[in-house]
Amino acid sequence: MRLIATGLGHRFGQQPYLFRGIDLDLGAGNTYAVTGASGSGKTTLLSILGGWVTPIEGEITRSSAGHAVWVFQNPHGVYQRQAVDHVALPFLARGISRSEAENEAMRLLASFGLEHRATAKFSALSGGEAQRLLLARALAAAPSLLLVDEPTAQLDSVTSAVVNDALHALAGHDSIVVIA
Q1: Which of 20, 79, 82, 113 is least crowded, fewest Cβ atoms below 10 Å from its Cβ?
Q2: Which pTM does this prediction carry?
């Protein structure tokens, strides 16, 4: 997939523009960072790239159909479900057998350093573990576009470093990855 944005600009109502004149050429297998101060429009830009918000100015062109997956700033999961269940679900939704889905989920959990937490309930995970779990689940969904919104904003520096290592592991997948 390739995503091209030309002349993007956005504001809410008659407020000043958050940004204007943004041109992007994003390709699969690459990871991109969106940086800026709080309130500068990073999340809004992610929403536009994902197709959930229409920009006031400019246009977006996608070279192929595909779907976007968003990993939110604050990890949310099903409180009583095990970590492996969260990652197996996208495989099951694609019609893969339960045993194969769990095997693939375990492979992804291992790639994010979570294999030892596979049977832990979501409610028992630390903030960093929950964030890495949701990154693994996002990859299980095989998105064309993966949007990650401030994944370390609520974490301490040690946990942030672990999540950043997990983000580095996303490089080279078949998705366009955009991290605010």
Answers
A1: 79
A2: 0.90
| Mean pLDDT computed over every residue of the chain | 92
Contact 151, 179 (CB under 8 A): yes
> pLDDT digit string (tens) for 136-180?
999 899 999 999 999 888 778 887 888 788 777 777 778 899 999
Distance CA 125, CA 148 (A): 19
119 burial type by CB count under 10 A (0-12 exposed, 13-18 middle, 19+ buried): exposed
Rounded Cα gap, residues 127 and 25, in angstroms:
33
Q: List, as own/partner pairs, every contact residues 18-25 make where C-beta atoms lie below 8 angstroms and the sequence separation is at least 24, other chains included.
A: 18/44, 19/45, 20/57, 22/58, 24/49
Please provide residue 145's backbone torsions phi and psi, each rounded to the nearest 5 degrees.
Answer: -135, 120
Residue pair 35/82 in contact (Cβ under 8 Å)? The answer is no
Q: Taking CA 116 as the corner, what is the angle to CA 115 and CA 122, rounded to the nearest 5 degrees?
A: 85
At 47-76, the pLDDT tens digits run 999 999 999 999 999 988 789 999 998 889
Alpha-carbon gap, residue 114 to 134, rounded angstroms: 11
